[in-house]
Amino acid sequence: MRTEPVLILTGPPGAGKTTVAAELVARYPRAVHLESDRFFHFIRSDYVEPWKPESDEQNRMVMGIVAEAAARYAAAGYFTVIDGILIPGWFLEPVRDALRDAGRPVGLAVLRAPMALCIERVQGREGAASVDASALEQLWLSFADLGAFEANVLESDGEGAGGVADTLAQALADGRLLI
After folding, report:
1. What is the Cα–Cα distance from 155 to 110, expressed in whole angstroms?
2. What angle do CA 7, 120, 36 make, to 5 degrees?
3. How many domains does the chain contain in total?
4. Which of 106, 110, 160, 164 has its Cα between 20 and 30 A from that of 176?
């Protein structure tokens, strides 16, 4: 049975989370990449945009389901990565705690790239709805000063996804990302 931690890969929009997660899981013979944002899209009625104040109950429910799914995949022997905007003080701790309660070790990696690059990447995504730069800036600032989690930051501005995945794999193997 695999004993790798469930990896929470977070950071602001445009930092490269999904691309790096795909690179990383491709290195494992059994791996799962859970894109947490997709879980919100499963709601077909009574959906509330997750950034609105009235979405709190929905957001907690969705992130609880993400954590449960990740724990189940990990228990089945899959290296599991949760990719999403899990901001400390908001989604990160409840997901971490649910994984721990399920008996799973937890790793955390926060990808950060310069704000201008993140905004450029998000606004340049093909087929994506236009996103307000001020909203992106607010999300970026949520990852600017992480206190105790600062040791889990990987700067992703000059390195390609493969290089960031290499660094991430090594940090994970060394146990430096455990929380």
Report:
1. 8
2. 30
3. 1
4. 160
pTM listed for this prediction: 0.92
Q: What is the pLDDT of residue 1?
A: 47
Q: How far apart are CA 92 and CA 67, in angstroms?
A: 10
For residue 9, give the H/E element and its range.
strand 6-10
Residue 1 covered by a domain:
no
Please report, for residues 47, 71, 173, the alpha-carbon distance to residue 41 in angstroms, rounded to integers and kept in the order given.
9, 21, 33
Query: Does 178 reside within a domain?
Result: no
| The predicted structure's pLDDT at residue 134 | 84
Contact 6, 71 (CB under 8 A): yes
Report d(CA 164, CA 158) in Å as an integer: 9
Structure tokens at 118: 């993140």
Q: Both tokens of residue 127? A: 């087929």
Provide the domain limits for residue 51.
6-173
